[in-house]
Design goal:
alpha/beta; Rossmann fold; six-stranded parallel β-sheet; two-stranded antiparallel ribbon; 7 helices; about 15% strand
């Protein structure tokens, strides 16, 4: 974990609880966890980059990513492994320096390339069997924050990040 320079996140089932809501006019609505969002800000302040790879397209996601300052977002990814390779090239790092958090079988090929794989507690069983870490929290309910804290602590960065909050 000490070599991790970037965290790549799936959306549905990781940043959200997998629920997808539509208004009667077809507008998509997603619920994102504020603690996850603050964790993303914390890990970026520590110098670890954050990117998103998702198989869907969503205006709500674009807005949330922009709000958090996440610059690298790949939507409509039909092959997440190839999308991950593109992110690694853009960031100028090796995939082994990436932590990937996903919850379903479509995430497994990308996870296999990474130095660290993480899944929320409600990921499908096959994913939980194959990853390095399974969080205590389900997707959209603080699992990203937990993964971030694990990474920051393993790199000795957690206390430094917390200095800004704790006197």
């Amino acid at each position: 974990m000490k070599q991790i320079k970037a965290l790549v996140l799936d959306v549905d089932g990781v940043l959200t609880d997998s629920s997808i809501y539509f208004t009667d006019k077809g507008q998509e609505i997603k619920a994102f966890n504020a603690k996850d969002g603050h964790g993303i800000k914390m890990i970026m302040r520590a110098g670890i980059q954050v990117a998103i790879i998702t198989g869907r397209k969503s205006k709500a996601l674009k807005y949330r990513a922009q709000e958090l300052g996440i610059e690298h977002v790949i939507e409509d990814a039909k092959d997440k492994k190839e999308a991950l390779k593109k992110i690694a090239i853009k960031l100028g790092i090796d995939p082994s320096e990436i932590a990937y958090m996903g919850d379903d079988v479509v995430d497994l090929p990308a996870m296999a390339l990474c130095g660290l794989s993480v899944a929320p507690s409600d990921a499908i069983d096959l994913v939980k069997e194959k990853v390095d870490i399974v969080t205590d929290n389900p997707g959209g309910k603080g699992s990203v924050r937990q993964a971030i804290e694990i990474i920051l602590k393993s790199q000795g960065l957690y206390d430094k990040v917390m200095e800004r909050y704790v006197a």
